[in-house]
Amino acid sequence: MGLMMTSRQDLRILMVLYVCIGICPVFLHGLPDVMNILILCLIWGVVAASWDLIMGFAGIFTFGQVAFYVIGAYTSAIVTRTFGISPWFGILLGGVLTGGIGVLVGLPCLRLKGSYVALVTFAVHMILEPFLRSEAGRAIGTGGPQGILSIPSLTLFGYTFNAMELVPWFYVVLSISFFCLLIIYFIIHSNWGLAFVALRDSETFARAIGINDFKYKLMVFGLSSFLTGLIGAVYAHYVGMLSTRLLGLDLFLILMVMLVLGGLGRFPGALIGAFIAVFLSEWLRPLETYRNVVFGALVVLLVIFVPQGITGFLFPDDRPGPLRRLGALLNRKTPDGPPSNH
Amino acid sequence: MGREFIEVLISGITNGSVYAVMAVGMALVYGVTKVFNFAYGSFYSMGGYLAWVVFGAKLGYPLVFVVVIPLLFLAGWLTEQLMIKPLRQRADWEMMAVMVTLGLALFLDNFYQAVFGPFVKSLPLLVEGDITAGGIVIAVQDITIFLVAFGIMIGFMLFLGKNTLGMAVRAVAQNMTGAQIVGVAKDRIFALTFAISAVLVGTAGILLAPKYFVSPFGGWVILVKAWVITAFGGMGSIKGSLYAAFILGIVEALVGWQLGFTWTMFAWFAVLLVTLIIRPQGVFGTWG
Amino acid sequence: MLEVDRIDACYGEFQVLKKVSLSVEEGEMKIVLGPNGHGKSTLLKTICGLIKPTAGAIRFKGRDITRLPSEKIVEMGVTYIAEDRELFPEMTVLENLKMGGYNRRARPRRARNLEYVFDLFPKLAGMKKRFASNLSGGEARMLAIARGLMSDAAFLAIDEPSLGLAPILRLEVLNKIKEIHRTGIGILLVESNIPQLVDIADRIYLMEEGELVFDGSRDEALNNPDIKEAFLGV
């Protein structure tokens, strides 16, 4: 796991990526399949980046990302269908509600050790499906086992986004996705980001220098799930229907591939990983059921042999040790103090 | 009503005995290696699938165990040596170990689905027939399962308590540095622990397969149940997991009987939540 | 018998040991003094294979043990007795001792070593069934030393055996070490309270900032005003 590269390098890479992706429709607007894939890449890139924020940077083992994605999607779908409010508002609500749930999930995890958090969040994922399919779920509008079959699409100044014209969708998703990644970028390079890394690398030391780990952990839970829920809602309105199949482990697996390909804790590795993973998935489609077998093997092999991911491979960083980084943090907080000796 | 109650109770105890085997395996791995094996559920299914293959070759039960158990042992051993061991030197080994075992789990589950298809497989009963006593019907299968599971538990406890290697396992769990000091080969013990846990959970898979079938993704429920049991009983405690397994097995049976299957899953999560909030170290506690 | 040849050792990023060299022959007892946190424990742990040096070599009975895994080193007869004792809390005193004799060379002699150990520490004989977590500080210290003896070692690295003990217990522990020394086992001892041991120490080292800044006989140590004041309590 790495520390962020210098701020400007990160931002530069991010901008370049988005510009490159942004001009794709110019050449590809005639290929709806490719356009669809690009849109999904942008959507899942946000999920992957949010996961990387909480796991790669803050070092919290959570496996609830897909659950939050689905919660955001269902929330917006239900709310826009039941109350007829604008999908834009629904998306925002989806994000906020999911963020709130993220904080709630984070609460019991505060005092738990690593693997326990993984299991609790995985348990949230596992319990979501029976809940959505149950009678109680149906009562609030989840559509039970059938799911939700028609979700209102976005409208802007009288224009209704539809599945025939993907270019407008593309640019909406591009903008929202960029906005989310930008938020993540700013968090990572702020004092909060340093606090996350400090907590990740040496919790006792971080606490000793006054970092309130409860506050930061809840914050990162909330933010990561907010963004994931938000983009999940976007997905719902884009695809127009939802079912609990999203909670099957396919999405989970491909997200893991994205993370490991991109390299944990290397911004914007997760986004790069997302594009590679999705295209890889398309390329491997002829393998049918064996495709996921390959993905599983890929995760294992990457973790063992290329833990720094493709990003780490292309941009190896010069890692100062954790205690020196904490010293840097300390110096930031007490500029008059003596430099830490060792 | 009373009769049904007793039958449900027996079902709960039978399941509880197999849960005990599973939970003890998990407590073992976590207590000794401090790694949580996310592929645990996939090893459960591995037991079921390997047994199914052996049956397909027209071989009977005793041979199933003879063939499958060494394979499970090998699978566990290799997993630790090839996938976990290389990660230990790294600073973030705990997270990497979780990622790698999760990746392995998804690899295995999808492999099962690709090779064996998405539909459930079932195994024949170990023993056919029922016993009727005082108006209560008990399947001989259930009794057999209970005895086999119980036997496994006894054997395992004896191993830990009396056998030198078993004591070495306990030593590593209780104090890794101390174990190094007295000359225990930690690496071998880690691999051995993984191997034993694979055998335990895989055997559980074989025992429960006739009743509950084998499916590609069925291992996840098992992972969660085993974990809830060990968390409830005390993550490091073998004895705790033992008691917890029976208690929760019975609770599950009762809840299922009165409220239906969906509610049993909620019940498991409720137990988990309550345990984590009220007494995170579990009812019992340390490594005995 | 034991030769440490210019070893460096690091803890994370910090270099703890810097070109440390020393040797211990059969039957010798050498003492390492020095302020806390300057590498004394690391030195002992590195010799016993718990930490691997980043440079230099360690030889035992002529064989290079620098890269050997710790279990092989224990088997060869080098045992570490930790400052933190590192006992097995959920095991009884007897089980802890049995585990002490785990290594393959010591296993056949387990019964005999148990007898010797109970002879040397009669109090332990009366506590066989007690759990290690139920022992007092002094009892735990004795158990740690006894467990170390069970490994049939030819060389013991003992880390601050009397630390934190009441004066009477301190005396008792150090006397036991004297007795052990008399049986011909080579000992490298880290201690801060050694008036009793000065007369039998073959050599005294002072370690500061990971380096041996003093290496001399006991007379030389006694004539060195800094050492006398800081460590010998004379």
What distance lies between the first and last C-alpha atoms of chain C, to the nearest angstrom?
A: 32 Å
Fourth-level CATH superfamily of chain C: P-loop containing nucleotide triphosphate hydrolases
Number of strands of chain C: 10
- H/E series of chain B: HHHHEEHHHHHHH
Q: What helical percentage do the residues of chain B reach?
A: over 70%
Tell me which oligomeric state these chains represent: heterotrimer
CATH topology of chain C: the name is Rossmann fold
β-sheet strand percentage of chain C: 25-35%
Described by strand count, sense and barrel closure, the largest sheet of chain B is: 2 strands, antiparallel
Major β-sheet strand ordering of chain C: 6-7-8-3-9-10
* Total count of domains of chain B: 1
Query: How many separate domains of chain C?
Result: 1
Measured distance between first and last alpha carbons of chain B: 40 Å
User: Helix share of residues of chain C?
Assistant: 25-40%
Write structural notes for this entry.
The complex is a heterotrimer of chains A (342), B (288) and C (234). Chain A has 342 residues and is an all-alpha fold. Chain A is 72% helix and 1% strand. Chain A has a two-stranded antiparallel ribbon. Chain B has eleven helices and two strands. Chain B is globular, with a radius of gyration of 19 Å. Chain C is built from nine helices and ten strands. In chain C, strand 9 and strand 10 form a beta hairpin. The relative contact order of chain C is 0.18. At the A-B interface, helix 6, helix 12 and helix 14 of A face helix 4, helix 9 and helix 11 of B.
